[in-house]
Amino acid sequence: MKYLITTxxxxxxxxxxxxxxxxxxxxxxxxxxxxxxxxxxxxxxAADMGADKVLIVGERYGNPSFIEVYDVENAELVKRGTIxxxxxxxxxxxxxxVYNVKSLCLEKEVLDEKxxxxxxxxxxxxxxxxxxxxxDLKASLERGERGFELVFRAPGSKAIVGPVIRIREIDxxxxx
Length: 176
Description:
CATH topology: Rossmann fold
GO molecular function: rRNA binding
CATH superfamily: Brix domain
InterPro entries: Brix, Brix_dom_Rbsml_bgen_prot
Function: Probably involved in the biogenesis of the ribosome.
Distance between the termini: 27 Å
CATH class: Alpha Beta
Shape: globular
Keywords: Ribosome biogenesis
Structural class: alpha/beta
Number of helices: 4
Mean pLDDT: 90
Helix content: 10-25%
Protein name: Probable Brix domain-containing ribosomal biogenesis protein
């Protein structure tokens, strides 16, 4: 799985930093400055790169507020869904950045049925497998003071690396 990560037009510095953090935790990902690129042109660039998915980070009041996820099919973008955010903590705020991640998996251990549903949707929309073997980085869904938080940790460590992503909801295209 290869990801192209970018922003909506005219992003804030915080959103650009979040894109950099996101690219550091998603394996085989590349960030691209959006500029005035249209969705059609992004699709062509993603196809040339061999990307399977395009993630577009949008903002509200200068803070990342959603991630639109697209599949790349024949140099065209097909919307897969939207991850709506409550907020993020950047790796510069957690003081731990991660580099050269080759593999990422989602830990299945969750607290309740709602958390299980959110985790399943994350796996589906981003095509991230559940943990079964060794991985460079493990993502887990935890209950934070403001809802669900997606946190990243190196295997065997309790220290959080990369961004913390607070999830409001996940909308998948074609559902109800």
